[in-house]
Amino acid sequence: MRALSFFLAVLLAGTPAFAMSRIKDIATIQSVRDNQLVGYGLVIGLQGSGDGLRNSPFTEQSVRSMLDAFGVATESGSARLKNVAAVIVTATMPPFVNAGSRIDISVGSLGDATSLRGGTLIMTPLRGPDGIVYAVGQGPISVTGFAAEGDAASLTAGVPTSGRIPGGAIVEREVPGQLKDVQTLTLMLRNPDFSTAITVTDAVNRFAKKTYGHNTAREQDARTILIDKPKNISLPRFIASIENLRIQTDTPARVVLDERSGTVVIGENVKISRVAVTHGTLTVRVTELPTIVQPSPFSRRGETAVEPNTVLSVNQPDSQLAVIEGADLQTLVEGLNVLGVSPADVIAILQSIKSAGALQAELILQ
């Protein structure tokens, strides 16, 4: 906690009172978006680390279908291959890619293959949510993890059953309707906020009034700003002229608590009303030390017995009462540090302060 306080103190000292952000960093254009693709394929060339065809029957069916397409006749039950693996191929097609462009793809094992290292993905169609093929993937797989196994021990580093193929897919079809014939841009804030939406609208209108002689932007809700494209200017050039405008963003007061990792994130606008807090922990340790009792020598009726022996220890460290009043983020952290508690205890304290109605912020538990 002392290190956390020092870090936040340095951070606040080096940060301007009013941080300015570019519009391109806090908002996206609705028509400009990525598109996810997925496909099912086969990886060949594995060194005995592929699917067990008895445990993964779909792999055997896929191999037979592929061989039939190549004119190779196979008999049922005769294929016992270990160098083939069924995989799911995923890709994200960025905006403005044309047919013939290359995109990266990710490959993950679907069956019981132990490693994809050294394998090659054969031609795999990648489809969008509409079922249309937008790209085709193929190529050698780059796997960072590895697995080694012996008779009595095994070693695995990373994830050898997944990998990537940089530039492994060729785009076959463009996504239609990206910024074509768009006269009104829809700007979407990444963090919805009415104050930020109004600030963005005013900044765009000031620029448009000075440059084009009239306002072009209007807010719709906490996330959406509508911007009309001026005449006699291309849409990419107009977007480039407004995306670098700097504005002051506004964020709600939030406290995020992650009990699994003990992470506490406190927003800059979080305030705590004056409240007194005490926090102490009670530790009870129970230790079993059984004693083995042996019978006397030459005793006919004596039996070996176990005599239970339990040791109890109770530790309750001294706790102190501290007054916490968070006028700003640094004061709040310093007030929590007065108690000398761990991050897990800070989580419990903040939850109790919220229940008392003294935490003027939204509390989010993860």
Outline the structure in words:
- With 366 residues, the protein is of the alpha+beta class.
- The protein has helices at residues 2-13, 23-26, 57-69, 194-211, 235-242, 329-338, 343-355; strands spanning 20-22, 27-29, 35-44, 85-93, 102-109, 120-127, 133-140, 146-149, 154-157, 162-171, 184-189, 217-219, 224-228, 246-248, 254-258, 263-266, 271-278, 283-288, 291-293, 305-307, 310-315, 321-326, 359-360, 362-365.
- The strands form 8 sheets. Strands 3-4-5-10-7-6 form a 6-stranded antiparallel β-barrel. The protein has a 4-stranded antiparallel beta sheet with strand order 2-11-13-12.
- Helix 1 (2-13) packs antiparallel against helix 6.
- A hairpin with a 4-residue loop joins strand 15 (254-258) and strand 16.
- It has 7 helices and 24 strands.
- The chain folds into 3 domains: 20-31 and 179-248, 2-Layer Sandwich (Gyrase A, domain 2), CATH 3.30.1360; 35-171, no CATH class; 255-295 and 304-365, no CATH class.
- The chain starts with a helix and ends with a strand.
